[in-house]
Amino acid sequence: MIIARSVAGARAAVFPHAGLLRQCVAGLAAVTLLFAALLSAQAASFEQLTVSTKAGPVVFEVELAVTPAERSKGLMYRTELAPNAGMLFDFGVDQPVYMWMKNTYIPLDMVFIRSDGRVAGIAANTVPLSTATISSGAPVRAVLELPAGTAKARGIAVGDRIEHRLFAGG
């Protein structure tokens, strides 16, 4: 017992801040894991999507949001979106869809798409950080989010056809 005390005392003398050191190492490990999780969340895969407009095809690189967690997060917390980029939310079947802009810092155009790939509606220039409900207005399978003003600038309109593997004939 006396030997154990002297070893513990010697340890305390050599490492007077061992408890603080352990806390720092644990904190660093937690930060490293969080950083790795954030990187993997941002390392999404992109797919090509084409909108057939009256003026011709318009091509975007879209990130897919398929799982409930992906759809729930969407483009939240992002501060920029490239002009030719977007996010495609897939709900699997045609249904009424309700979106919002909570924790979304960039204004968006929301293009509501039926399962046949036709544009059913467009909500242009949505307001960042708003919790107001944005309704599809009709049953849709998917929503394509684009930088605000893109739909008008690129001539995307109701009735246009979306070409992507999610849609019939796409």
Summarize the structure in words.
- The N and C termini lie far apart (77 Å).
- The protein is built from four helices and nine strands.
- The chain has helices spanning 2-14, 18-42, 68-73, 150-154; strands spanning 46-53, 56-65, 85-95, 98-99, 108-113, 119-123, 134-135, 140-147, 161-163.
- It is 29% helix and 32% strand.
- The strands form two sheets. Strands 6-5-8-3-2-1-9 form a seven-stranded mixed β-sheet. A two-stranded antiparallel sheet has the order 4-7.
- It has 170 residues and is of the alpha+beta class.
- The longest helix is centred in the first third of the chain and has 25 residues, at 18-42.
- Strand 2, helix 3 (68-73) and strand 3 (85-95) form a beta-alpha-beta unit.
- Mean pLDDT is 85; it is low at 31-43.
List keywords for this structure.
two-stranded antiparallel sheet; seven-stranded mixed beta sheet; 170 residues; globular; 4 helices; alpha+beta
What's the total number of strands? 9
Quick one: biggest sheet? 7 strands, mixed
Calculate the terminal CA-CA distance, rounded to whole Å: 77 Å
Please estimate the helix content.
Answer: 25-40%
Low-confidence stretches: 31-43
- The SS-based structural class is alpha+beta
Radius of gyration: 25 Å
- Rough outline: globular
Overall residue-averaged pLDDT value:
85
Strand order of the largest sheet: 6-5-8-3-2-1-9
